[in-house]
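Example (one chain per record):
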Amino acid sequence: MCTGDIVQQNVEQYHGLSDGYDWKRTARITIVGSVLGSMQYFFYRSLDKRYPAKDMRTIAKKIVIDQTLCTPMNIFVFIYGLGLLENTPWAKMNEEFRHKFLVIFSVDCAVFVPSQYINFKFVDPKYRLVFVNMVSIMYDTFLSYIKYTVSSLLV
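Predicted structure:
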């Protein structure tokens, strides 16, 4: 998530929306990203143990499980984790979650449903998290954008 935030802060500077890097913001995103990365490592590991086959039905099942269990949990950890690190009042975090969840979830589905098909079909299980992290760079840039740039438009 750190790389995505740095990319987004470059975009913000280019468009005159900020004067420099907010390294504390990047540090907070890095902390949340580390928590999410650890959670995903164990999630994908258990998913592969439970559903080791690579046929279309099993891959579809993995994608549905990923999008219905992992994605909402990740969005929750992203919004509330950053909110806690930023000392945001609980009511404001709830409001942000309500306003941004559907947008984030929709983009997540658009990005990760096709990429997870490739991941589950062709990528060796020990490299799955690496593949997801490579795909995530632009998605993480979007998350930083939705969190810090358009927050006033959505909340």
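Caption: The CA atoms of residues 9 and 80 lie 21 Å apart.
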